Structures are given as structure tokens and as C-alpha cells.
Amino acid sequence: MSEQKHPDNARREFLTQGAKLAAGVSLASGVMLYGVAQAKPADEAVTSKVRWGMLIDTNKCTSGCDACVKGCNDWNGLKGHGRPSTDAQWMRKVDLRNKATGSVHSLPMLCQHCENPPCVDVCPTGASFKRPDGIVLVDKHICIGCRYCMMACPYKARSFIHEEVTDQRPHAPRGKGTVEACTMCVTRVDEGQQPACVEACNADGHKAILFGDLNDPNSEIAQTVKTYATTAIRADLGLNPGVRYRGI
């Protein structure tokens, strides 16, 4: 009689093997990784004293501008050819129309980096996780491509990679058969830089995206959130997203 493994032991073995995978090693049939980016130096701990977030002013964001999307695509090596079946979309522009007044607001939509992320709750392997500083990420080593997180996300902020990925950026490893989303440019943040979308928006002269530490009462973003009314998308869900909007 063949030996059968207890489900818990089998799952533990799978996770252990996944954690040992290096760049270019197959996770499973059709699931490949092409590099590993270290989110934080080993001697520099991520702390919950910080809560990274964004404040997007829709009054400064125009429907004809996609500088933030291009900045995201360029930095992370996304193709952006407009093929929704195969292209990843870490950031996209959406138009909100007020049916009563007819007014239209254009705004960037991305992973909202929730305090209580539903994508993390439903992930069966722990691949979707939240850092202590509020940034929500996907560990490609243990993502099995089940796409439960995509179904759970109310913002449609995640993409599944159907095809082989080429010309990758070393700081943004990607893999066929895995799910991915906005990382809030975690490698840049860990080096004290602004996310690529914020930098691109500023360079274009709009300055519609404010990035910073929501937990620091002296930071510009915390002061602005305290002074002006802001909106959380789908606030009724109680997810407390790290991305807020003004003007909607």
C-alpha cells in the first residue's frame, strides 16, 4: 500500500519547498520565477510605527493624463499594450460620473493596501500578505495561481500572468502562473524614494498624488488628511485602505 501524507504535512512540505526556490526555478507546471527582489535590507526591520499611504487629489487629475500609469508600467516593466487578457494592470485610470450632476472625476485605481485586506484572508498559501508598514504584497514563491485573491479584491486591482514574461526589471520579479498587483514600489520606498507613479505625476506638473507616512502626525499626508475631507473607496467594507481620495 502506498504511503499517504496527511494534508497538513503535505501543505507544510509544499510551503517549505516553495520558500527554497531561487530565480528561474519552476514552482509548478507553468509557474516560473525570474528573479528575487529584497524588499528590505536584512539589518533594517520593517515596523508598524509607519503606515505608508497615498492621497490622490482628483481635482488635479485630468482624464487625458496617464502619466502615473506610464510611470508605473515603465518602472515595473509592464507592457501596457491594452490586452486585458494578457497584460498586467497595476494601475489604471477610471472615470466616476455623478448621475445627479453629470460631473466626471478621473482618478487612478490601484491596490488600496488595506489595513484589513480580503486578498490576504482568502489566500490558501500565505502568498498574499501585508507588511507591518501597511504595504500589501504577493510572494511569488508560494503563489499557486488559484486567483482567490482576485475574486476577493473589491477594487479589481490584481492581475494574473498568463504568458511567459520577458525583459523583466530586477527590482520587480514576475512569473507566469502567478498573481500580481501594485507593490507601492516597495523597493523604492525602502530606499527612501517616492513610488514611480508619484514621481511621474510630479514631473508632469500635476502633483495630484501625495505619498507618505499616515502614522506620522507631522507628515504632509497626515496633515492634509486631518485638514481636508477625504474618501475611501468602498468605505462600507471596513477595510481601511491606505489610499485615499480628495474631490469625490
Describe what you observe in this structure.
With 248 residues, the chain is α+β, with helices and mostly antiparallel strands. It has one domain (27-246): Alpha-Beta Plaits (2-Layer Sandwich). The protein contains 7 helices and 11 strands. The strands form 5 sheets. Strands 10-3-11 form a 3-stranded mixed beta sheet. Strands 1-2 form a two-stranded antiparallel ribbon.
Query: Cα distance, first to last residue?
Result: 65 Å
* Beta strand count: 11
Query: Mean pLDDT, as a whole number?
Result: 84
What order do the helices and strands follow? HEEEHEEHEEHEEHHEHE
Strand percentage: 15-25%
What is the CATH third-level topology name? Answer: Alpha-Beta Plaits
Residues in helix, %: 10-25%
Q: Which architecture does the CATH hierarchy give at level 2?
A: 2-Layer Sandwich
Major sheet: order of its strands? 10-3-11
Summarize the structure.
The chain is an alpha+beta fold and 248 residues long. It is 22% helix and 18% strand. It has a single domain, classed as Alpha-Beta Plaits, CATH 3.30.70.
What topology does this entry show?
Blueprint: H1 7-19, E1 26-28, E2 31-32, E3 52-57, H2 67-76, E4 91-97, E5 104-110, H3 118-122, E6 128-130, E7 136-138, H4 148-152, E8 159-160, E9 179-180, H5 186-190, H6 196-203, E10 209-213, H7 220-227, E11 243-246
Parallel strand pairs: 3-11
Antiparallel strand pairs: 1-2, 3-10, 4-5, 6-7, 8-9
Keywords:
single chain; 248 residues; alpha+beta; Alpha-Beta Plaits; three-stranded mixed β-sheet; two-stranded antiparallel sheet
